[in-house]
Structures are given as structure tokens and as C-alpha cells.
């Protein structure tokens, strides 16, 4: 059984839970077929895949992830990043052009964030900063809103895990480009990156907020101020 067939069979056989009161289209923000496979189940499949294919080559892994990314279901599109995380030796070789390609087939906050939220830390970006800086700036200017959101979300974990000022400067640069957008995919991402920066760049966030409060999305101002004051954001809704 090849790599892709292994995953498809595992998804087919996985436990599924469909709640009639849960609207996956409204919640996840996309129209892809939702099978009801939970994240814990997808992590189990990912671990089983790593056990079955421990020595898969980088090119073969990318080919498999590309195929999943083009799949028809929500599960196809969100299990790829979980599999990628199992291969630390290959993860370090992921560059913005891989993310660019995958974002073409992702819709809504959940699919975008599954790929971008916690996959890459500060060390990863800083190991090839020039490439990542160019890539994230390009994402912030793209007509595809998935890539514009990614230009912010991809910096959230690096902002929490690194103290290099270049991360802070790029995050604020991308916020400045996107702060006038009204779509919730962007306004919530702006709030998220500003709050993520508080741990290591608190004074920079405070100064930026003071200078730009009137032009930033109100939700970003409210949640960032709350985080600065109390260490918590205003609501428990998804970022």
C-alpha cells in the first residue's frame, strides 16, 4: 500500500462523529466535505503513518502532502500538516513556496491555521530569514485572503518562541498593510499576532497600539488591550 492509499484507508476507517447541531461550513469557514474525524483521531493516523513510513523521502512526503491538500474533504486538507509535524528531519526543509502552494487549496480559518498556527517556530524562520521574510511579505500582498491571513498567523508561534527583533518588525509591517481590511479572517488574525507578540515584544506592541489605535480593527484593539492589562483576551472564541 502506498503512502496516500494508507492515509485514505485510515480516514475511511477512522471513528467519526457528526453532530446534527454542528454546522461545519459555518464553523470552519469552508465548503469542503466534512466527515467528522476528530483531531485526536487524525493525530493517531499521523502517528501510524510515521510508523508505517519511517524513512519516507522528502520528495515523496511532499508529493503525498500535495495530493492530500488537493483532496475533496476537510480531513484530507487538515491531516497533512499533522503528518508533516511527525517528520522533524523534513520539516526544516519546508519553505514559503510549499506553503504558498498548499494555501491555494485551503479555505477558512480552520484549514489555514491547521497549516500555519504551530508548525513553524522562530528557529525555523530564522534559519533562512531572508527567504521567509520575502515570502511572508508576498503573502501579505496576495489577492488570496488565505495567504494574507497566513502572513500573520505564520508569525504567531515565532513571536512567542523567539526574541529576534526581525520577527517583531515583520509582524508589525504586515499588520500595517492589512489593518484596514474588514474581513474577520484578517481582523482576528491581527488581534492574534498582536497578542502573541506581548510575551517577547510587549513594549513594541504598546507603542504600536498607542500610535495606531484609531486605524486598527476594533476587535484587535479591544483584545490586545485586555491581554496587556490582564494576560487574557476578551473572549474565548477562536482567533
Annotate the secondary structure layout.
Blueprint: H1 3-13, H2 24-28, H3 39-52, H4 58-69, H5 74-84, H6 88-91, H7 96-103, H8 108-116, H9 122-126, H10 129-140, H11 145-153, H12 156-161, H13 165-178, H14 184-212, H15 218-230
Beta-strand share of residues: under 5%
Outline the low-pLDDT stretches: 235-239
Classification by helices and strands: mainly alpha
Total helical segments: 15
User: What is the average per-residue confidence, as pLDDT, rounded to a whole number?
Assistant: 94
The secondary-structure element order is HHHHHHHHHHHHHHH
* Approximate helicity band: 55-70%
Molecular shape? globular
Work out the radius of gyration.
18 Å
Explain how this protein is built.
The protein is mostly helical and 239 residues long. The protein is 68% helix and 0% strand. The protein is built from 15 helices and no strands. It has helices spanning 3-13, 24-28, 39-52, 58-69, 74-84, 88-91, 96-103, 108-116, 122-126, 129-140, 145-153, 156-161, 165-178, 184-212, 218-230. The termini are far apart.
Q: What is this entry, summarized?
A:
The chain has helices spanning 3-13, 24-28, 39-52, 58-69, 74-84, 88-91, 96-103, 108-116, 122-126, 129-140, 145-153, 156-161, 165-178, 184-212, 218-230.
